[in-house]
Amino acid sequence: MRWMKAARADGAASDETRARPSRRPTGQSGNLLFDADLSDLPQAMRWREWMGRVEAVIFASPAPVTRDALVKLVGRDCNFDELISDIRDDLRARPYELVHVAGGYQLRTKARYADAIRVLNNGAHDAGPPALTPTELLTVTAIAYLQPATRAELSQLAGREINRDVIGSLKALGLIAAGPRAPMPGAPYAYVTTKRFLEVFGLASLRELPDIEMLEDAGLLQRAANEIELDGMLGVDDEDVIEHVEDIDDA
């Protein structure tokens, strides 16, 4: 790891230097100026301090933190990708990990500890997706691939009615939201997935959605009586989907 190499190069730092605060007062108003560069620290200590800052901010945030926000915490000569890699190495033996989801970085518990978190039923939540019925899972998956999609379109895909309760349950969980009204009689709402959907399913963006065949192999999609072909069906062509996905990713 880079910080270990830097530590050997720097040798032992003095106690006086180790006690140096990362923020210092400036001006008559007493406002604090954040020192991102830490240029007067030895390289190894500077690297460790940057790692601590980034990890602390991600830990304290209720939502994924973007790269653009995090780079403000470190110096201009910091290789941010190497810093993230070192934090991940540090956490390798811990029950949680640093992941890139929903366009930002987040600390989340590892999947193998989900049962331990749930058994106490004390309000703590594991990082995985909520428990969904097969119909809810099919519905949210179809919306992810076809969005924006109306309830009638989803019912056609599923081969049975997707009722309002299913849509309401997914909205209550924050996984989908009402998108634009569809240009068809009655102008029904079309539904889209949310950043919360990306977060709980561990996706950095919708571009990371797995192939349909992989979902079927995993048993996450059940084909209706009629053969399901998601690509290009229900009047949603590929260009429309790509354009809409880009809009959500940029939001």
TrEMBL record:
<dbReference type="GO" id="GO:0051304">
    <property type="term" value="P:chromosome separation"/>
</dbReference>
<dbReference type="InterPro" id="IPR005234">
    <property type="entry name" value="ScpB_csome_segregation"/>
</dbReference>
<protein>
    <submittedName>
        <fullName>SMC-Scp complex subunit ScpB</fullName>
    </submittedName>
</protein>
<dbReference type="InterPro" id="IPR036390">
    <property type="entry name" value="WH_DNA-bd_sf"/>
</dbReference>
<dbReference type="InterPro" id="IPR036388">
    <property type="entry name" value="WH-like_DNA-bd_sf"/>
</dbReference>
<keyword id="KW-0159">Chromosome partition</keyword>
<dbReference type="Pfam" id="PF04079">
    <property type="entry name" value="SMC_ScpB"/>
</dbReference>
<keyword id="KW-0131">Cell cycle</keyword>
<dbReference type="GO" id="GO:0051301">
    <property type="term" value="P:cell division"/>
</dbReference>
<keyword id="KW-0963">Cytoplasm</keyword>
<keyword id="KW-0132">Cell division</keyword>
<feature type="region of interest" description="Disordered">
    <location>
        <begin position="1"/>
        <end position="31"/>
    </location>
</feature>
